[in-house]
Amino acid sequence: MKHASGRTPANDCARVKQLGYSISRHIHMYGEEFEIVSDPFPDGDGVAVQAITRKDPAPRTLRLPVAILVGRRDRF
Question: Which pTM value belongs to this model?
Answer without folding.
Answer: 0.76
